[in-house]
Design a protein that fits this description.
alpha/beta, Rossmann fold, 2 domains, seven-stranded parallel beta sheet, 13 strands, 15% strand, globular
Amino acid sequence: MKIVIFGLAITSSWGNGHATTYRALVRALSSRGHDVLFLERDLPWYAENRDLPKPTYARASLYRNLDELEEIHASDIRSADLVIVGSYVPDGIRIGDMVHRMANGVTAFYDIDTPVTLARLAADSVDYITRKQIPKYDLYLSFTGGPILARLERHFGAKRARPLYCSVDPDAYFPEPAVEPDYDLGYLGTYSPDRQNTLDALLIQPASAWPKGRFVVAGPQYPDSVRWPANVHRVEHLSPAEHRRFYNRLRYTLNVTRKDMVEAGYSPSVRLFEAAACGTPIVSDVWPGIDRFLSPGAEILLARRSQDAFAYITGIPEQDRVSLADNARRRVLQLHTSVERARELEEYVTEVSTVGRSQSLVSRFETTGPEPAVQRPA
């Protein structure tokens, strides 16, 4: 297929989690023979922090405004087999209108922030999609699965709400036996107020209780008001090229989920899959549906209190720690790679073409119940 994607960012991972997701998916689509054009608004804060200015596996084009965008890329939109508009894209509403006016192929909205989007739609405060636009897209691709898919179809008129979770590129994330772990627990993520209390409970408090332990937090935008214990090392920003080494230096990594994602459930973070692919054991907060992706106790450790996290990182025998990591890695490499996501996207586009673009389908959740649990690898 010829695919055009309007996304928040692919050239810069600074302060956003979208770039990592798009890079993995686009690279996988390209490897499967698709021609991908990624269109990105030229924003100053990304321009100053571009860690992938020219992807080798796809064309990335920057535009300064919508007039320039339409002048240069109108023919690409018209000739594409699939046009995707992502969440948080600047002027996403106007771009959506442009796509619906020009596109002759399948159209899709890719929501990397589904619970946030729906909460803002209820408050009429979304600037990248409107409620009226949702039924116009042939596909509503969602980072969040489970019951929210039925809600998108029943209450928002989505023709086909389908999960397209984040993924990991196994060529970029893998164990490095030569790298010895030198931190007991680490966290990788941009500051978010609604994650900070959990980060405090599951990392900062255990660090304070264990002065001899070694901890690290990597990510930008943390305010000066955060008080870090002396044994917590801070890294302002890590480019995706440095993530693999970061995870390989950890005995355990912490996964913390935003409030809206916790409430919706079924919203795995890309960090979850990256860490597992690197063979790093994961301690995570708890949310509905997490057991659909990794099995608690066998592939991931769930922590509700600081005491839980402290007990995991200080009390689990080394053999069990390694076994936990190995189990998670096998599961993720089987079900959550970027190639698997590319295949799923192909299936969804085929579904549109087969059933008919104007025909709305009854929600699969509504007719068959929640998404079936994936089979654990033998």
